[in-house]
Amino acid sequence: MVAPLSAWPWENLGAFKVQIQKLCFLLDFDCQLFLCLEQYLLYGPFLGKVLFSRLQDNSMTETWCLHVLILCALRGFIYQLCTSFSNMLFLTRNRRILQQGVDFKQIDQEWDWDNFLILQALIATLAFYMFPILANLPVWSTRGFIAIIILHVLVSEPLYYWAHKCFHGSYLFTHYHSLHHSSPVPQPFTAGNSTLLDHVVLAAVTWIPILGTCLIGCGSISMIYCYVLLFDLLRCLGHCNVEIIPHQIFEIFPLLRYLIYTPTYHSLHHREMGSNYCLFMPLYDALGNTLNSKSWELHRKISLSSGEIGRVPDFVFLAHVVDITSSMHVPFVFRSIASMPFTTRLFMVPLWPIAFVVMLVMWAKAKTFSISFYNLRGRLHQTWIVPRHGFQYFLPFAAEGINNK
C-alpha cells in the first residue's frame, strides 16, 4: 500500500490535466488553482486573462497570479541553468565531488523534478486568497529584507533541520525521503525529486518567512522574488556535485563556514546520510552535534584539486557536431532532450539562432573539449568534441584547421 502523501495528486492524470486547464479557461471560472497546475502551457492564456482584466479594471487577482507564473518560470530557469553548468565537463571536471556520471535511470527517475513548482504555485495562490494583504505589496521595502533574513535564520533553518532529521527516521525515510536519496549522483534536479510530503514541509519552510514578513507589514514584491530565487539557487548549489566555493574564504573568515554550506558539505549528507542535515547553515548541525567531521577537510581537498590536471583518460572517442540541431542535444543543454538524441521539440526552434552563434564562436575560438565520460572496469573513457560541425568537413579551406585540432 502506498503511504499517504507519497504520490503527487496529478501523477496519473497525464494529458487529462492539460484538458482540465483548457476547460477551466474556456469556461472562464475564477479558478487560478487549476490554472497553476501546469505553468508551462499557460503563459499565453494567462497573459490573455491579465490583459482582458486590465481592460475591465479588475487586475488584482490576475496580476498576482501572473507573478506566480513568472516566479515559476524563473525558478525553473535557475534549476536548468545550474544543471547545465554542473554538466559542462570542460569547466567542471576537476571540481566534481563524485567522479561518476549520471545514467539514464537517474534521468528517468528525476523526470518530474518540477512537481514542487506546481505545488508551491498552488500554495501561493491559496495564500493570496487567505491573506488579502498580499494584493497590495509595495515593490521595495528595506525593512522587509532584514525581517525575512531574521525569520529565515530563526525559524526556517531550525524547522528544516528538525524535520529533515525526522525524515531520516526508519518509517519516514523508507516511505518518503528515500526517493530523494535514490539518485546516485546529486544534481540540481535531484533537489526537486522528492515525495509530496517532503515538499509540503519544504514549502512551509520556504513560505513561513515570506508570510511572516508580509503580515507584520514589511513585505514587498522584490523581497519575495529575491528570497525565493536565492532559496532555489542555494538548493541547486548543494546538489550540483561541483565544488565552486574556494576553501581560502573559510580560512580568512572561519565563522563563515557555519553560515553557508558547500556542495561538498551536502554531498557528504547524500553519501553517509547520518550527518549534515542543515538547510543552508551548518551552524545548526554544529548545535545538534550532527556535523560530519570530514566536511571541511574534504572541501579543502576538492578545492585544491580544482587547479590540477585531472586524470588522463584510458580511452578517448573523438567526435564532432553533426548539425545545428544536434548541437542542442548535448547533456548540458537539456538533459531530457539529450537522452532522446533524435527528438526535436518546438521550444528548440527559438534556440536555433543561439546555437548558430555558438557554432561560429566554436569555429573561431574553441579548442577540443570533453563532453561526456564513463568508467568501465576501472578505466576512464571520455568523449572529446572537435569544435566543428558536419558541413565544415566538406569545406576545402577548413581541412587544415580540423586536422590541427
Brief description of this entry?
With 405 residues, the protein is mainly alpha-helical. The chain contains 19 helices and three strands.
Short descriptors:
405 residues, mainly alpha, three-stranded mixed sheet, 3 strands, globular, Fatty acid hydroxylase domain-containing protein, membrane, Fatty_acid_hydroxylase, transmembrane helix
Structural write-up:
The chain is mostly helical and 405 residues long. The chain contains 19 helices and three strands. It has a three-stranded mixed sheet. Helix 8 (142-167) runs antiparallel to helix 10 and helix 13 crosses helix 15 (295-305). The radius of gyration is 23 Å and the shape is globular. The chain starts with 15 loop residues before the first helix and ends with a helix. This is Fatty acid hydroxylase domain-containing protein. Keywords: Membrane, Transmembrane, Transmembrane helix.
Question: What topology does this entry show?
Answer:
Elements: H1 16-26, H2 32-35, H3 43-55, H4 60-86, H5 89-92, H6 104-109, H7 115-130, H8 142-167, H9 170-175, H10 196-215, H11 221-238, H12 248-252, H13 263-272, H14 283-287, H15 295-305, E1 315-321, H16 324-327, H17 335-338, H18 352-364, E2 369-376, E3 379-389, H19 399-404
Parallel strand pairs: 1-3
Antiparallel strand pairs: 2-3
Helix pairs in contact: 3-4, 4-7, 4-11, 7-10, 8-10, 13-15
